[in-house]
Design a protein that fits this description.
- With 234 residues, the chain is an alpha+beta fold.
- Helix content is 23%, strand content 23%.
- The protein contains 8 helices and 11 strands.
- It has helices spanning 26-31, 51-58, 94-101, 112-119, 141-144, 164-168, 202-207, 218-225; strands spanning 15-16, 40-43, 66-75, 78-87, 90-92, 106-109, 137-140, 149-152, 158-162, 173-176, 180-182.
- The strands form 3 sheets. The protein has a 5-stranded mixed beta sheet with strand order 6-3-4-7-10. The chain has a 4-stranded antiparallel beta sheet with strand order 1-2-9-8. The protein has a two-stranded antiparallel ribbon with strand order 5-11.
- The protein is globular.
- It starts with 14 loop residues before the first strand and ends in a 9-residue tail after the last helix.
- 35% of the residues are buried.
Length: 234
Amino acid sequence: MPDPAAPVLGSLTWSPAADRPELLAPPVATALPVLAGPAWVAEIADDLADTAAFSDAYGVPLAASANCVVVAARRGGETTLAACLVLATTRADVNGLVRRHLGARKASFAPQDVAVAESGMAYGGITPVGLPAAWPVLVDAAVAAAELVVIGSGTRGSKLAVPGSALAGLPAAQVLEGLGQSLPAEAPVPPPAQPLRLDRAPDDSDVGWGERPAEGSDDDRRYYEDRPPHWGTD
């Protein structure tokens, strides 16, 4: 029987995360007690873990989901890792705000194999809960203010739902205003090219001065049809 306190998010069935440790990556299960708030977990198909596919399949709005990305920050020949948590309707300002906040010369998304190996979580399921203690966890202010937000569980086979305030309260969390930047609007689709008008001469078709003059009268046509074969050749 469903828990009456469980959240209603999309078509998923949510259970207390502490009751379903098999759905969580080991570092996430270990770190659950540090959360200052409830944590719920729902099982999903592995191939639907990516945010857009997950939202379409289970009816969870993108605005209710957050993406956690791992960032590699470089300074003076040293590279450090950090995590950024932003709403799925935005993208992290990695080479701007993140780079400046971490005091790095350069910041970029960490390679997939590095993110997986260092976090101990599956790619596409990396979550701020249970990351290495030395990693800064940068949380967008909009995530921190969310009543409930859907994040990864450390695996591709489930999702967590936790209060934004609980994520802002993680030991390594730092809340940053403007961390999540609006996604660029899609470029307008140009109108299809007009087909070439083969029934008009280029001069009167291009200027758009209405219809071509009517064809000649029957008398004119008869004149041209009856002309001698050698007409006009002299």
